[in-house]
Fold this sequence. Notes:
- The chain is 16% helix and 34% strand.
- With 158 residues, it is α+β, with helices and mostly antiparallel strands.
Amino acid sequence: xxxxxxxxxxxxxxxxxxxxxxxxxxxxxxxxxxxxxxxxxxxxxxxxxxxxxxxxxxxxxxxxxxxxxxxxxxxxxxxxxxxxxxxxxxxxxxxxxxxxxxxxxxxxxxxxxxxxxxxxxxxxxxxxxxxxxxxxxxxxxxxxxxxxxxxxxxxxxx
Length: 158
């Protein structure tokens, strides 16, 4: 039998709890519906090393991610950091390959600042891209592909 919390007339006081992971961040646990709090932790791309190095360079030069510390998993790779968090994991693999047709996972998206700086970097790197304006949300979107063929969306508030 599922136990449901009793109805309440005002919001309860919610404790802060420390999640002891490799980032040692502070999270506020607001779980009024009885569901776990969830967020995407990172993206992983697996490819042969020459392609992986090009992919690392793309994300470091275009999106200004930083190549940072990574545990020794016994397989070469990189962790790329954004705002101090390892959000993109790159791992060497000769078992993965470029899809001949578009995958079901179409793209990954990043919230960014400095639209002009980003498009200038893409131009300097010779990366083709398209820009989409969503006026009703005051958002500019830039779409391109990384060297592995993964769709990359960058969103900019106007």
